[in-house]
């Protein structure tokens, strides 16, 4: 089946999201969470996959098919290529350096390195989540994975070395200035929630406010939208034609699984939302990383 044309599409009505946090799952879904984090070599479950997990039949079918894909040589290669593209493209937004200003505020070099290390975690991890979101939407919208990519399992590490658990600054932990930044993020990005990346970076409130202020003015610009569109189109091409599919994950089966849990339109709206927002998140983290380059 030919790949359908999938425009980058923000649902006209933002769907209700019910992400299942890691502490809320047990049994089969807890085991799947652990295996997914191990396979992607990330220390957190993305909001996208936690939202999928609200639909148990859908999530089970999706992960069964995804597991050998995300552990393949081809998947890791495409994640790396996507990151390289995003980081090069982010330079077109002219990120200014924050290093001198943060040192003047009193940040020690050790603290700046801690922020860089955290940005490295997200710079690595957001790429596979974007690939997963694109696979999911493609299959739900009538496409198939018809590529003949290398299904050989990747051996060794491709992500940052494991560190301590992420410390997230939830809104109820934050002071008024940080909550104001969160509100501006949601307003500027048009989203009903604040991604994990931002809640982790807000551990350093003065850094986070300066970093977001540097980024926010770019988000509505033509260059920013062009970068997101490039990532969107490039990822769809990769997932449709360049990834292996050894477990034969098919659109018909995934749509049937989704419909077993909820109206198909509901699950599709969730898939569209995340596949729309993740190119922007990848771009944003590339920009923030460049600010401390």
List the helices and strands and how they pair.
Blueprint: H1 27-40, H2 47-52, H3 56-70, H4 73-90, H5 99-105, H6 109-140, H7 176-189, H8 196-201, H9 205-216, H10 222-241, H11 251-261, H12 264-291
Helix pairs in contact: 1-3, 3-11, 4-6, 4-10, 4-12, 6-10, 6-11, 6-12, 7-9, 10-12
Architecture overview:
With 293 residues, the protein is mostly helical. The chain has one domain. Helices cover 62% and strands 0% of the residues. Helix 3 (56-70) runs antiparallel to helix 11 and helix 4 (73-90) crosses helix 12 (264-291).
Quick structural overview:
The protein has about 290 residues and is mainly α. The protein has helices spanning about 25-40, 45-50, 55-70, 75-90, 100-105, 110-140, 175-190, 195-200, 205-215, 220-240, 250-260, 265-290. Helix 6 (about 110-140) packs across helix 10 and helix 7 packs parallel to helix 9 (about 205-215).
Main features:
mainly alpha
- pLDDT average, as an integer? 94
Helix content: 55-70%
Q: How many domains make up the 3D coordinates?
A: 1
H-E order: HHHHHHHHHHHH
Strand residues, percent:
under 5%
Give the terminus-to-terminus CA distance. 44 Å
Q: Determine the oligomeric state from the structure.
A: single chain
Number of strands: 0
Outline the biggest β-sheet: none
Shape: globular
Give me the number of helical elements.
Answer: 12
State the low-pLDDT regions, or none: none
Please state the structural category: mainly alpha
Gyration radius, rounded: 19 Å
């Amino acid at each position: 089946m030919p790949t359908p044309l999938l425009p980058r599409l923000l649902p006209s009505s933002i769907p209700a999201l019910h992400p299942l946090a890691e502490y809320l799952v047990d049994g089969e879904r807890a085991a799947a969470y652990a295996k997914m984090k191990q396979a992607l070599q990330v220390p957190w479950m993305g909001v996208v996959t936690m939202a999928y997990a609200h639909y148990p039949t859908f999530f089970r079918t999706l992960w069964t098919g995804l597991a050998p894909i995300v552990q393949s040589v081809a998947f890791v290669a495409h994640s790396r290529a996507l990151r390289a593209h995003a980081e090069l493209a982010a330079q077109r937004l002219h990120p200014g350096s924050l290093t001198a200003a943060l040192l003047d505020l009193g940040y020690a070099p050790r603290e700046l390195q801690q922020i860089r290390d955290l940005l490295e975690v997200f710079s690595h991890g957001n790429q596979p989540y974007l690939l997963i979101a694109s696979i999911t939407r493609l299959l739900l919208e009538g496409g198939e994975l018809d590529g003949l990519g290398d299904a050989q399992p990747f051996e060794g590490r491709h992500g940052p070395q494991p560190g301590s658990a992420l410390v997230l600054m939830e809104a109820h932990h934050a002071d008024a200035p940080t909550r104001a930044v969160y509100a501006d993020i949601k307003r500027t990005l048009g989203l009903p929630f604040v991604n994990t990346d931002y809640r982790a970076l807000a551990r350093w409130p003065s850094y986070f406010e300066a970093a977001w202020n540097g980024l926010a003015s770019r988000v509505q610009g033509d260059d920013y939208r062009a970068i997101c569109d490039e990532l969107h189109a490039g990822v769809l091409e990769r997932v449709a034609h360049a990834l292996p599919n050894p477990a034969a994950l098919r659109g018909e089966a995934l749509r049937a699984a989704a419909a077993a849990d909820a109206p198909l339109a509901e699950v599709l709206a969730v898939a569209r939302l995340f596949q729309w927002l993740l190119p922007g998140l990848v771009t944003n983290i590339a920009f923030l990383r460049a600010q401390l380059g």
